[in-house]
Amino acid sequence: MKSFLVSILGALLLFVSTASVAQKKTTLRKAFKKSFLIGTAINSRQINGRDSLAKSLIANEFSSISPENDLKWSVIHPQPKEYKFETADNYVALGKANKQFIVGHTLVWHSQVPNWVFVDSNNALVAKDVLYQRMKEHIETVAGRYKGKIGGWDVVNEALNDDGTMRNSRYYQIAGDEFIVKAFEYAHAVDPKAELYYNDYNMYKPEKVDGAVRIVRMLKEKGQRIDAVGMQGHWHLDSPTIEEIEKSILTLSKEGVKVVITELDISVLPNPQRNNSSNITDVAQNSQNINPYTNGLPDSVQVALAKRYEAIFGLFNKHKDKIGRVTFWGVQDGNSWKNNFPARGRTDYPLIFDRSHQPKKAYYAIIETVNK
Ligand code: XIL
Asked: Is residue 328 helix, strand or coil?
């Protein structure tokens, strides 16, 4: 009897361990090899090797990396004559060591950019040629330093309003929409082989996608190459719909550009915004009723998140000929900016690895979509 029990137990143990080995055997980067690049955004601690738990996860699971903050203008070029390259250099070296496609984010954006870029010594907006000179110097220095190493740049980020009109940023106030053309011109001149992207959030909104189409056409008319349009993908459990995302992918790819999903995360928390803005200054107040899962995620929500990711990746796989890359905005839930946006200090669960760096149900669900 005893030996019977022991052998049953042994068989059970074997079954459990082979099942988990089988589940663990593949990685995202292997599973999506024939579909598209699969990336993650990494933060300074991860880049500088101070997050040892994330290290092998980043290397093994992902075929591409994006820098969450360290290549933004205010970080890499805080003063006119001051560049801080250390973390960015480490970022590029890490991608090389991991044999990953290295993304540059971002050259021209209205956020996380120093005030001095736009003003003179009297704090008045500078003339167009002064702005262009500063943009040119910045782009030549940063994109030039990583020429041949960074495979693609978010050249311009978030230049559109949700209704498809141009955002009234200081770039726009000084130069009109020509600043976009100039940014692409400078980026192409310094590294002709790097891919060049226009990137924005809420790209499921048809009017906004029409705005992106206008940007693509304007660039082409002016003789500038654009390789892909980035849909950031800061989404929710119930919005946008798969149909909305699909329409945008189709509309953009008809323009002869690839689509890249650049900043994917799916918030499971109540959404305090009506406009789904990912503009980093559009903050909301935190309160208990919009922060319900501080003690852990209920299984029902975990399952709902997995189903949502499954549907989204089902769509991505269906259109893998149009999609160049899908990048998650963060490695694991604990790193996600969604814990602090749009409301600060919440506990969100928007990624596919949990706070212990373990794959969530969503991880297995998206891998399953490859063979469907
Ligand atoms: C976010 C980062 O994740 C945060 O750490 C930072 O505090 C603010 O910016 N759109 C973008 C990204 O293009 O650069 C933003 O990243 C998120 C919204």
From this structure: strand
